Amino acid sequence: MSGAEVAGLIVAVFWAILVSFLAVALVRLAQTLKRTSELVAGITEQAVPLLGDASDALRTAHSQLDRVDTITAEVAEVTANASALSSTVASAFGGPLVKVAAFSYGVRRAVGVRTSGGAGAGAANGAAGTDRSRARTVKAGKVLPAARRGGRRNRSKD
Fold first, then answer.
1. Distance, CA of 14 to chain centre
2. Fewer beta carbons within 10 angstroms: which end of the chain, N or C?
3. pLDDT-above-90 percentage for the chain
4. CA distances from 120 to 13, 43, 124, 125, 130 (A)
5. How far is CA 121 from the centre of its chain?
6. How many CB atoms lie within 10 A of CB 6?
7. Could you give the count of Cα atoms lying within 13 Å of 66 in the half-sphere of its Cβ?
8. What is the C-alpha to C-alpha distance for residues 79 and 136, in angstroms, rounded to an integer?
């Protein structure tokens, strides 16, 4: 065998080994592509119903939001009606109730002055004295704040 024949034989063996490695790599690549296509098919089978469920959920949420909008509008209308009603009641009964309360206070005060203070010029002094005595009356266990203990005469002027 000559050197050219040996070199040709080495090149032929090298090509045979290279082709066998490439054949193994191609077989593995074919198996990987087959598994990948099966995986994609499985995901597609599961994704289609999932997308349908998501679409149904979105439709349901949209209809619920429409209902909430309707309810909110109705609540706003009820609130406006309640506000109008309260302002009507306040304007209709507010003034007369204040007048009745003021009148009843005046009657109670007049009756209180008459029963405790006497009549005539002494009644005015008696009314003032009654107010002061009420302001200074202390119930057992209660302490007056320092500003109210001494009255106006004992306060220092700053």
1. 77
2. C
3. 46
4. 143, 104, 8, 10, 15
5. 64
6. 10
7. 6
8. 48
Tokens read off for 153: 């005469």
Q: Look at the block and give the residue holding tokens 């309640």.
A: 82
**110 in helix, strand or coil?**
helix
**CA gap 64, 71 in Å, rounded:** 10
CB contact set of 114 (below 8 Å; sequence gap of 6+): 123
With a CB cutoff of 8 Å and minimum separation 6, the contacts of 151 are: 136
Strand, coil or helix: 85: helix
Task: Compute the distance between CA of residue 63 and CA of residue 52 in angstroms, rounded to an integer.
Answer: 17
| Per-position DSSP letters for 36-77, written without gaps between them | HHHHHHHHHHHHHHHHHHHHHHHHHHHHHHHHHHHHHHHHHH
Q: Quick one: tokens of 9?
A: 């034989």
Question: What are the tens digits of pLDDT across the range 65-122?
Answer: 999 999 999 999 999 999 999 888 888 877 888 888 888 999 988 888 888 765 444 4
